[in-house]
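Let us work through a complete example step by step.
Step 1: write down the sequence.
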Amino acid sequence: MTDEPARCWWSGADGARADPRMIAYHDDEWGVPCHDDMELFERLALESFQAGLSWSTILNKRDAFRAAFQGFHPDVVARFDEADRARLMDDAGIVRNRAKIDATIGNAAAFRATAAEFGSFDAYLGSMVPGPPARMPTGATAADVPATTPASDVLSGDLRRLGFRFVGSTIIYAFMQSVGLVDDHLPGCFRYGVTR
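Step 2: predict the structure and record it as tokens.
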């Protein structure tokens, strides 16, 4: 008998090799509404870097990403130059993908411009995906969790219009899940229906 609460399947909590970082991310971050612009930029950048990789890979490199991207301060990252790009490409602690690095630097400038136009990036997101977050219906299973939705399609398209890159609908839906714009915790998970 275990005292561990039930969690969503992807957290790996019930596996033989449970990853404490994945469990903590599931329990404390995923689906929790985030309104801090710096954290929103970090999450958007990390979701972009995750494309084609496992989320556990990104979580295991998150501290290195934070150091390499100087805390994900959009104002700082937007000023990265060729020397910074070379430094990032040489950093074995992060995902060394030139297209993703370039996109993150460019996205920092687009993020700043969007935040300036709307008062904050959080306000922009609120205008695009008004709350409260949608929740999985009773009886939903892992097969019911979508990879994209009409809302992620619209947000993805608008972000592209604003100059963002590596923001396809699948990446944006994962971002929406991460920052609590949707709540995809499944029935049976101790976080199901928990509003924070």
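Step 3: interpret the result. The longest strand covers residues 134-135.
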